[in-house]
Amino acid sequence: MTRRGNRGADFARTLDATHYYVRAIWLPGASLAETGKHQYLLTGSGNRIELTAWFSPRPIAAEPDSAAAVESASRDHCGNTGPAAGPSTSPATTIRAPRSWSGESCFPNT
Question: Against a cut of 0.70, is the pTM above it?
Fold first, then answer.
């Protein structure tokens, strides 16, 4: 892991012949701790954490979108009929789940 200031990190992993990279950012106030080999814990001071991560087979040069941008793209993708937890049109994955989130998707049978 390579830290990117106090609100981001880059990860590189190899599993057999597969190489992948992750670039993650989170809102100020959260902190990342390494809790074991390849294990990390992101904690925050409130009851909500916003994390956006890009996954790639090559090193990542771009900055990940903000959680708000991914949430907006998710709404657009779902036609404004499903929750923001649906997939986005960007290569980012956002985990933005309030404690009451039901895990519903804009796609049937998921």
Answer: no
